[in-house]
Structures are given as C-alpha cells and as structure tokens.
Amino acid sequence: MNIKKLTFAFAALLGIANAAYAQTDSTAQDKMLSEIDQLNGTTAPQSKRVYATFKGTYVQNFQSVENLGKGVFQTMFMHRFGKVNQGAYEFFGLDNATTRIGFDYGITNDWMVSIGRSSFGKMFDLATKYKILAQTEDDRMPITLSVYPGLTFSTLKQPGKDWYKDVHRLTYFAQALIARKFSDNLSIQLMPTFIHFNLVGGPTDKNDVFAVGIGGRYKLTKRLSINAEYSYMPPKQVVTTKVYNGLSVGFDLETGGHVFQFIFSNSRSMSVPGYVAGTTDTWGDGGIYFGFNLSRVF
Amino acid sequence: MKKIIAAAVLLSTCSYGAFAQKYFTNKGVTTFFSSTPVEDIKATNKQTSALINTNENSLVCVMENTKFVFPKSLMQEHFNENYMESDKYPKSSFTGTYNKKIDPNVDGDYNVTVSGKLSIHGTLKDVSVPATIKVKNGQITGHAVFKVKTKDYNIKIPTIVVSKIAEEIQVTIDFTATKM
User: Fold this and answer.
1) If you write DSSP's letter for every residue of A52-107 in order, what string do you get?
2) Does B115 touch chain A (CB under 8 A)?
3) Domains, chain B, ranges and CATH?
4) Mean pLDDT computed over every residue of chain A
5) Do B74 and A72 touch (CB under 8 A)?
6) Residue A112 and residue A25 in one domain
C-alpha cells in the first residue's frame, strides 16, 4: 500500500516535471541563442573600429579624421560670404562671397586625396589624408590618428614684381589630426599644424609656422550636430600682418548623401595657411564670416 | 510491485527523451532588399548563425547588424548610425518553431511554417513565415523569404529620404546547417 502510494507520487512528480519542461519552450530557444554565442566564441573580445566620429570630412575649416570609403568620390562646394559688420548695403556680407570648389577621392578606406580651388587668393590646393590609427570600441586604441599633408599654389598676378617666381606661390602644410569619439554624441579632435611659407611678408616673419587647432562636435539628433573649432597660433611667427586666432562655430545637417555645414567664423580663408595664419578679423569687431560647406558623395 | 517500480523507472527515462539532435552553422546568408522608384538598396550578411533542434522543432537565427555589407560604404555607415543604431542594438535574431516533424536522417523536402519572435532594432514581434527545409546527406538547408515593415520595428525614416527607402523590406535567409 505504502509502496504503491510512493510509486504513484513518484510518477506524478515525473509527470509534473515533464509538463514543466514542455512549457519552457521559449526559454529553451533563448538558451539556444546563448548556445550560438558560445559556438561562435563571440565572448572573445573583438576590436571593432569606431565609426562616424564626425559626420563628414570637415570639422569646420579644419579637416576631420573621417575618410571617404574606397572608390568614393566627393564634391565640395564651400562658400564664405563677406563680413557681417559690412552692414545693410552689403547685405551683411552676403554680397561678397568667396568660393572653394573641391574634389575628394578615396583610394582606400584609410587614404584619400583632395584637389580644390579657392577664389580667395585664386588658390589651388592639393592634399592627401591618411589614417594611421583607428579608435576601437573596446578602447584598446583610444584615438583615431590621421595625417594631412598638402600644399597651396596661388595663381594671383603679381604685376611689377620682377623677382616673383612660381616657387613663391607655393606654401606647404602638414597637420596631425587626433580625434576621440567620447560617446555617441561627443567627439573631440586636436590638430597640431605646421606650415612652411616659401614667401613671407617681411624679415621678421617666420617661414616655418607652428599652430594647434582644437575642435569637436556634439550631436543633437541623429542627423544634426553643433560643431566648433579654435585655431591657436603662438605669437612672433606672423609679424608684419596683424593676425588673430580663429574661432568657428556652426552646425552640421546630414541628409542621405549630403552634409550641409553652416559656419560662422572670423577666418575668411578656406585653405590651411589662410585660416591658421591669415585671419585678420575678430569676433569682437563683428568680423564674422558666415558660410557653408556642402558635400555630396557619389 | 516490481512491475510498477520498473514501469516508473522506464517512464523516467522516456520523459527526458532521446539525446538532442542539433544542427548549426555560422555561415548563413541574410539579404535584405529595399526597392523604390528612386533607389534600390541591397545588403548582405554572410555571417548569419542558425541553430536547429530537430527533437523540439525549434529554430534560432542570429546575426550581427554591423556585418551587413552594402555596395556603398556611406550607406553602410548610415544604416548602422542612423537606422539600425547598431551601437544600441548590435544583433537581430529570430527564435521560434516550425510546424512539421523533420527527420534529419532521411533526405527530404518540407514546406513548413515557422512561427516565433523576430527581434530587430530592439523590438520583438510575433511572426509567422513560410519556409522550405531540405534534408540532404545529413545536412539541413533552410530558405525563407518574407517582408518586414520598418515601422513595426521603430526604424525611423526621415521625410527627406522617404522616397529612397521602402516601407516594406524584403528579407531572404539561406543557411545549410550540419550536425553538431
């Protein structure tokens, strides 16, 4: 009698256990998900590259660490209008616009070349950008490091100057771009810059100029960010012209294949030697140039 | 008496069933295709994992969103940054069951309906999808084509690009799983 009861109880328990096992079908499948993880060894750390540190290849005037993908072609239309303090007659600077048209091409995912021409100074520019280090998600590489060397060639006529040779039209520059994406929204970049002028204004001006830029972006929505940059050039390098440090602020709007960048800056030039060592206006005097960068990717 | 105990012991072994028959691959292919009059967008993920348990009729598929390859790198960047938000939702997955008993030891073709939960962009939805399962030479091949609405998974498409991205995306999954 007792043994019968025990056996019956045992069988009943087994029945309950079996029923419970049958009901946990969905958790059994969730277990299969973790089983897949183990089979793939995805618990092992994978150093994935951080992407989209900036929305485009420019911070404002300075280049960003972003490159074009391999085989990608980009056109740049860049405008800087005249100074806001020019007043209503000049429509607050909108009547005086300078333009840069540029073409960029990605040779590899980490190496791109650029060519462009600015109407301000009738200047051609040629440059290349190469990514040496890429920030990874697990922070094994905490920064992205790119180099950006290039040159500018001024085609302005220089009447009456017999000594002026083509070599005087050339200026060389090299920048290191060191950036870190701190979060989904915040990226900051440091840009130490070296410029070599073949021709300078006077004997007290240095042919070799050092400066450093700092900039960043803060993403407000998936497609909109505010950007800012500051270019600092230590004194006693450009002496015969009164030059100032440059401050630019603006916002980026990204729409599919375009990035619109709206910029307010006291730097008028869009070339490296110009915006680093040739800024002759100040925010305090209302010497603010409104402009935009428009990129289109093919 | 002894018979009862023997029966109980027999029952206990039966209720746990035979050892699991599991089939696995991590080289499955998932493709999605969006077609509008303005633009066609196609992306392929060749690292889809699938795990089948033929004892329980269960099927689980999972893939990393960043492993979808697009013909244009900017498309891929936008997919991960703006649409899929792969930083927040690194994987898409399906967990569910199919409605016919499959004998993995006998070559055969089965038209089945797979039902379960599809997880995309952090959103879980119940789906029921027709699929074909083939058994050949001890391998199980699965093939399914179905449509997914971006709205159902909270994938936001801004008005400015709405003409370029379809509201319904066609998804194709193919895999060949081998016995573990």
Assistant:
1) -SSSSSBSSSSB-S--PPTT-EEEEEEEEEEEGGGTTTTGGGTTS-EEEEEEEEEE
2) no
3) 19-179 (2.40.128.110)
4) 89
5) yes
6) no
